[in-house]
Design goal:
Elements (H helix, E strand, L loop, with lengths): L8 H34 L4 H7 L3 H25 L4 H4 L7 H25 L2 H13 L3 H29 L4 H15 L6 H21 L2 H22 L1
Helix pairs in contact: 1-2, 1-3, 1-7, 3-7, 5-9, 5-10, 6-10, 7-8, 7-10, 8-9, 9-10
C-alpha cells in the first residue's frame, strides 16, 4: 500500500514543469547578462561576441550572481506555492559537528577522486576555462563569494531542496530522485566537456545522499561550498 505522502503522476508532472521553468528562467538571465556585457565590451551581441564574453570572469560573475539570487527567490516562492512549510520541507535542520565533519571529509575525498580522474580523462578544457575566468575577473572577492556561497545556495536549494525532495516523494523514490536531480544538475554545466559533466553528476549523487542521510540541506550546502572553495584556491595557485 502506498504511503499517503507519496505524490502521484499529476504532482510529479507539476514538479517537472516548475523545475523546467525555473531552470529556463535562470538560463535566460545568465544569457541576458552575458549578452549585455558583450554589448558593452565588444559593441556587439553577436554569437561570436557572446562566446568571447562568456569566457570573461567579470561577465560570468555578474551572470551567475544575478541568476542565482533571482533563482533563490523564485525557488522559495515555488515551494510556498506548493503550500509547503519552507524550512521543514527543504530540511533546514541543525546537524552535529561530528556528522558535518565526516561529510566534509567525504567532500574532500570526492575532490581527490575527481582530481585523479582528471589525470586520466584530461579535463584541460574545463581547467583552462576556469583559469580564464579567474585571471580576467577584476573583482576576485566577488567571484569568490559568488562561487563559494551564492551559487551553491541556489543550486542546493533548487536541486537538493526542491527537486530531490519532490522526486523522492513520488513513485520514483530516493534512488530515482537522486539520479534525476543529479543528472539535471550536471546538465546545467554545459560549459564543460562530457567527462567533467559525468564527474559533476557523481558529485550530485554524493551531495544528495548527504542531504538525505543527515536530513539536512546544510550538509550538502557545506560540502558544495567546500568543493567550490577548493576549486577557487586551485585556480588562484595555478593562475
Amino acid at each position: 500500500m502506498k504511503s499517503d505522502n507519496k505524490q502521484g503522476l499529476a504532482g510529479l508532472t507539476f514538479t517537472i514543469i516548475l523545475s523546467a521553468a525555473i531552470l529556463l528562467i535562470s538560463l535566460f538571465l545568465q544569457l541576458s547578462c552575458i549578452a549585455a556585457a558583450a554589448q558593452i565590451m565588444h559593441g556587439s551581441s553577436s554569437n561570436e561576441a557572446i562566446a568571447a564574453t562568456a569566457k570573461h570572469g567579470g561577465a560570468i560573475t555578474l551572470a551567475i550572481l544575478t541568476s542565482s539570487l533571482i533563482g533563490i527567490i523564485i525557488t522559495l516562492l515555488t515551494i510556498k506555492l506548493k503550500n509547503k512549510q519552507l524550512l521543514s520541507y527543504i530540511q533546514f535542520n541543525k546537524i552535529p559537528l561530528k556528522t558535518l565533519r565526516n561529510w566534509l571529509l567525504i567532500a574532500l575525498a570526492t575532490t581527490l577522486i575527481i582530481e585523479a580522474f582528471s589525470l586520466i580523462f584530461d579535463f584541460k578544457e574545463a581547467e583552462k576555462l576556469m583559469l580564464m575566468w579567474y585571471s580576467t575577473a577584476k573583482n576576485k572577492p566577488l567571484l569568490f563569494i559568488t562561487m563559494v556561497f551564492i551559487a551553491p545556495i541556489f543550486e542546493e536549494l533548487f536541486f537538493r531542496g526542491f527537486l530531490l525532495s519532490n522526486l523522492k516523494d513520488s513513485f520514483l523514490g530516493v534512488t530515482g530522485g537522486l539520479i534525476i536531480s543529479s543528472a539535471a544538475w550536471a546538465a546545467i554545466h554545459m560549459q564543460y566537456d562530457l567527462a567533467m559533466m559525468v564527474m559533476i553528476f557523481f558529485m550530485g549523487l554524493v551531495f544528495g545522499a548527504a542531504k538525505i542521510k543527515t536530513n539536512s540541506i546544510l550538509t550538502s550546502l557545506a560540502m558544495h561550498s567546500t568543493y567550490n572553495a577548493i576549486a577557487f584556491i586551485m585556480m588562484a595557485t595555478m593562475a
